[in-house]
Amino acid sequence: MVSPFTLLALGSGFLVAEVITVAVSAFAVSDKKHRYLIPWVPTMHFYFPMATLASYKAVYELLTQPFYWDKTTHGVFERTQDLAETQPE
Q: Which of 3, 13, 67, 79 has minimal CB crowding within 10 Å?
């Protein structure tokens, strides 16, 4: 198995990486115009794993359906109803 020293070294490395990530993110929004974003810095811990999952999904779709466009729908409305109302009779 893995020695306790190796686990401690890996854990310390991960902890240092997280501290650096938070410090860089906080520094990036420390300007006067962006200071209101500082409370959102801890949410970056959720952003990076979600971005990783999205990139895995994109690679999977690229390999399985290269010409498929997984387009985001914006707004909830009936397109056929809007067209029917604007069509002259």
A: 67
